[in-house]
Amino acid sequence: MSTPTTDLLIIGGGVAGLTLALEVADHLSVTLVRPAMDDQGASRWAQGGIAAVLSPDDNLDDHVRDTLIAGDGLCDEDAVRFTVTHGPEAIQWLIDNGVPFTPDPDPSARYPYHLTREGGHNARRIIHADDATGRAVVETLVNKVSAHPGITQRSDLTILTLLSNAEGHCIGAQGVDSEQRRQAFYAHHTVLATGGASGLYRHTTTPAPSSGEGMMMAAELGATLANLEFQQFHPTCLFDPDGPAFLISEAVRGEGGHLLNEAGHRFMPDLDPRAELAPRDVVARAIDAQIQQGTLGHVWLDIRHLGEASIRHHFPTILAHCASRGMDITRQPIPVVPAAHYSCGGVATDHAGATDVANLYAIGETAYTGLHGANRMASNSLLECLVYARSCARHLLSLPSPPNEPLNTGDDHQAPIIQPNINVELEALRKLRFKMRSVMSQYVSIVRSDQGLATASEALAEIKKELEKLDKAMSHPESMRLRQAIMLAQLTVLAASQRHESRGLHYSIDWPEHQATSAPSQLTLDSLRLAGLPH
């Protein structure tokens, strides 16, 4: 339809997308699609910090070992070592770009910035900006991006599908703008930085979580998805049914917070020698068990013993937010509940972020790199965003310069049809999305069973049929997004049902033990057809 508008199209403007844009924009033209909702996405709400070996008292092998242990036998060790090795330079890049990390007030400190410790780590290696690290990083990088003349930002777009040519190569993306007009963008290289799939669940730790739309866009072009069954539930989300989602950082337990059941008993030391600093899957299941045995619908996270001065110093954001919800955490424990937080699976990539679709890349939470295995260790997520965005940038800059002639876009009719103006009951679509999230939360969350997964599969198939009745052509933007979410939910259920063991974040009451050998799951869009599920 036209020549490409850019050398590089980046879809998503969290830490991964912003980092990549800045790293290549001196040499390549960049279009960064960064919808307004990205300000409410996972990157901005990452409180705890970024894990890296920074102190002279720490070492790379320890960080590798801790990550492998947390990943419960499914990490790709090469990916872990690659990430950990490149961590310190990624942190220095943020410091050089002006991210205001919290300094260590101790004049005898061996590292100038304060380092905290979180679950699964054997040392203090979490650099942070008070308790709002994600916000500090995003705001710093957004300011840099906005000032760069080589980056064109589009905040008025919702990308719905990727575009490919006759050879199956990705050539860009299409979607709608704020006026509901179709827009197509062509690019020599397209990068998905669209976040995870926590939005498939009712209770999440971010106000506007993605539902894996980027993962499904890649799958629709033929990309492989891996480890979808490993959805991480953060153990401690603020329990307030009448208010928005709010994460209570891992660092709260890292600094000495105690988990109490409704009888006031500190239960974690009874279950694991690491107590509140056990990996997240262990803590989340323990909290879930206490909730099931009780009547409150939550447990308590108590930090009163740390003292008001320490709480105000370490957790000013959490203190202020809880105060705005009528809770004084210096005088009362915090009600918390597990909530969908992080997708350990996603679009399978190599160390450069390349997928198995030519000219298509994925970075950040939407990608599966092998770093997290069966369970992501605390604060390795922003580390992954930084390391793989910078690695992807190095790869793209090493390629021959894009030719000046028009891009081979193939036949126009290959692009999915978008019809924003057709009459669709939007309220009915919202109800279907809520129903999908309820099904996933009931049957595909912290504890699973074969029967529950079978029930979820049947329910999701029915929801898809109801969607098709509302929009037979599946061409309205909201229908397209919901269809992608339902299909990803179906693939997640399929991946969970095929894993006949309990490992990391996937716990089945029918398969409570580890298998002797285990490998990452791999699915494509065609897996739904092979499983007898219409797609």
Automatic annotation (TrEMBL):
Annotated compartments: Cytoplasm
Pfam families assigned to the protein according to its UniProt record, in alphabetical order: FAD_binding_2 (PF00890), Succ_DH_flav_C (PF02910)
Biological process annotations from GO: 'de novo' NAD+ biosynthetic process from L-aspartate
Domain Fumarate reductase/succinate dehydrogenase flavoprotein-like C-terminal: 435-515
UniProt superkingdom: Bacteria
GO cellular component assignments: cytoplasm
Catalytic activity: L-aspartate + O2 = iminosuccinate + H2O2
UniProt KW Oxidoreductase keyword: yes
Record function comment: Catalyzes the oxidation of L-aspartate to iminoaspartate.
UniProt xrefs under NCBIfam families: nadB (TIGR00551)
Full protein name: L-aspartate oxidase
Origin species: Vreelandella aquamarina
